[in-house]
Design goal:
413 residues, mainly alpha, 18 helices, 0% strand
Length: 413
Amino acid sequence: MKNELLAHMNDPKQLERMYRTNKVSFRREFNLLYPGLKGDAIADAWHERLNYESDEINWGSGKDLLFVIVASLIAGLIAKLPVIFDINEDFFYPRNIGFIVFPFLTAYFAWKNKLSTGKIAVIVGATLAGVLFINFFPDVKSDVLILSCIHLGLFLWSILGFSFVGSKENNEEKRVGFLKYNGDLVVMTGLIAIAGGIMTAITLGLFSLIGLNIEEFYFQNIVVFGAAAAPIVATYLTQTNPQLVGKVSPVIAKLFGPLVLVMLLVYLIAIVYSGKNPYNDREFLLIFNALLIGVMAIIFFSVAETVNTTKSSMQLWVLFLLSILTILVNGVAFSAIVFRISEYGITPNRAAVVGSNFLILINLLLVAAKLFKVLKNGEDIASVKKTIAYYLPIYVVWTIIVTFIFPLIFGFK
């Protein structure tokens, strides 16, 4: 669409036709191109039109709403498959929970981005490969199975990213846009969950007043369908009404960055004071790694918001210091898992953790180096964004290795 936009920038009728054909994609592509078109009368007019923040909610077209409704119902039915077909829940949900939502989000962006038949075939093939692989995995309790189930969710998330990005044009912009979309999705889904929780409490309370106990029916049906539909509805709302969370996400990024920085600094000091040793305490090491992944996610989300909203040196310093502290945490975690491997040997869990930690460490070092150049040399902060964007496919490759290759290396039992 980028080339079409540039080619028809002086043709109002063609621009209008392109906009009406795919409003979401048109808005995204135009906003990426606008910095280079600023000053052109037509471009300025379209910028004001596309970025005008209306107080009203845009519910999209009838086709959009129909897609959301049908997708939500099918997602709810997939979540109910263990009840419908008497499938063991302990077998079904760990393996298939990702298939309840991700394929529908992927289909939504594939539809809106008008992906080619070849790309749709890749998406369908990869998704089917995941379905068949995980459901034909031997029904045994093993670390390899748990790792495959966890990383299968990340694999499906990667397929969603492929569908979101769509084309090779402005690839790095779209990849960071995908990270921003994930942050917005979390915010909107959280708001929907809060509203749903309030509605549930009111509904159960009202029915209890007239002597009807509907808790079991409500949770097994309404709540299940609502939980499956929430991410789909949230995606639809964030894409058709970016103004809903457009100002909330940057505030969250600015607020939580300094708070997490202080928390992490205090936590590292507390570790030294408490005498906890990640080299010999397995449970502590697991929590340590979970903290690392959470902080890294906050850094990347904050960078995605920062490069689009501000050039505040204070916020950049917070991100830089947070990156440095996270590198220290990663270094301790990485050395601890290497120590455990040298002492007790290699296992699927240790291999997965050491590989993930190594990739995260390299990524954080690259991001910190770019942030330092921005602060010291005044380099364009978009370089930080590109660093993150170019590194994302490496995580995808690692996800594929852990999901599909680890069982072959370590065995299915």
